[in-house]
Specification:
about 375 residues, alpha/beta, Nucleotidyltransferase, domain 5, DNA polymerase, domain 1, 3 domains, six-stranded mixed beta sheet, 17 helices, 6 strands, flat
Length: about 375
């Protein structure tokens, strides 16, 4: 596995040539690697292309937006099939960082979901369909480092190397069970995915494990420490846990050290933390007197009649899913069942607006409609 030459692309002329060759091939497997685990602001660090037995890794950190333009043209080309696996995150990141959109998309994970595969990771499917083992030891790698090791390059290319062969296997199975159109619709929906920046959450610190066990000034200290850590992480563009792990934030908020000596002896506080941020941590703790109470639940009180109807709809959905050997949540997520319960659709178009897929309407309209019609 991985004997082919891997071309490292970090020059505009190289990229233009590779994109031209990929478009001529008509089919190209695509994947990206981002540094979301290591940085505060996630960014695409690599984009891998495999076509005609060739493999290229594009250094998206080195090339300028203008130099990357041929890549955007390739991804948007409606005549070149782009094969991805679990494309949703890649699509959003490519939009966010470069304004790229992918057209003529074939998603192998979506194919596996339509087929009812219980596990849809790339490694699992490659092993099942192609009999090959993928090395996943680089999953937590920092893709922003340069140069990349040979192991990292092989790992990156393994995410595209087998996609075309995998697609052929899965498409044959989809055609055999009459679900090819279902998968094609899933791919069309994926093409419409759009990046939306996350909404600021002033209560995000409550997601720290154990935070809800604090109250008053202790919770206020946790909030202050969390805000301070966010500021440091943003300034350094590193993941917040690389400043202070969340369990240490909780410990400092629960048992605030009064001075440097106490801080040094706090479990989990390393000499590096004391050296870089010891004074700032003590200042945050000493200056925080705010008493914080968790906000009341913002969830509206459940509509009991609607909940009963959703329960009945879910039971029927589960029966259909079992008959189809497909994941119930993929067949109809809870949100779609809630929409059916609220709107009680009567037309095909209204059913589509609730269920979001034509193939779901074809499968579920009659059985769910019987539930709505029952007294």
């Amino acid at each position: 596995m991985g004997d082919e030459t891997i071309l490292w692309v970090d020059a505009a002329t190289q990229l233009r040539y590779i994109c031209s060759e990929a478009r001529a091939a008509g089919v190209v497997a695509v994947d990206s690697e981002a540094d979301s685990f290591h940085s505060y602001y996630p960014k695409v660090c690599l984009l891998q292309l495999s076509f005609s037995g060739r493999h290229a890794v594009v250094d998206t950190l080195k090339l300028t937006p203008l130099e990357l333009a041929p890549l955007g043209e390739l991804l948007a080309d409606p005549k070149t099939l782009k094969v991805l696996h679990g494309a949703d995150y890649d699509l959003r990141m490519l939009q966010k960082d470069f304004g790229f959109f992918v057209r003529f998309l074939a998603d192998t994970q979506a194919a596996a979901q339509v087929l009812g595969e219980p596990q849809t990771s790339l490694a699992t499917l490659v092993k099942k369909e192609l009999g090959l083992e993928l090395d996943k030891t680089q999953q937590r790698a920092d893709w922003s480092v340069r140069p990349l090791s040979a192991e990292m390059l092989r790992y990156a290319v393994d995410d595209t190397r087998y996609l075309e062969a995998l697609l052929a296997k899965l498409k044959a199975r989809l055609a055999a069970c009459g679900r090819l159109a279902w998968w094609e619709e899933e791919c069309q929906v994926l093409e419409q995915v759009s990046y939306q920046p996350p909404e600021p959450d002033p209560w995000a610190f409550l997601r720290i494990k154990g935070a809800k066990g604090l109250a008053g000034e202790a919770l206020g200290r946790l909030k202050a420490l969390w805000l301070w850590r966010e500021g440091v992480a943003q300034a350094l563009d590193v993941a917040p846990f690389r400043v202070l792990p969340s369990e240490l934030l909780l410990r400092l908020a629960s048992h605030p050290p009064a001075d440097f000596s106490a801080l040094v002896h706090t479990p989990g506080v390393s000499p590096r933390v004391v050296r870089r941020w010891g004074t700032a941590i003590l200042q945050v703790l000493a200056s925080t007197r705010e008493e914080v109470s968790p906000p009341p639940s913002l969830r509206p009180r459940p509509d009991e009649a609607k909940e009963r109807l959703v329960t009945k709809l879910r039971a029927v959905r589960d029966e259909v899913a079992q008959a189809l050997a497909i994941d119930p949540g993929f067949l109809a997520p809870r949100a779609t069942l809630e929409a059916v319960a609220e709107r009680r659709p009567q037309t095909d178009e209204a059913w589509w607006q609730c269920l979001k897929r034509r193939w779901r309407v074809a499968v579920l309209q009659e059985p769910l409609g019987k539930v709505l019609a029952a007294p």
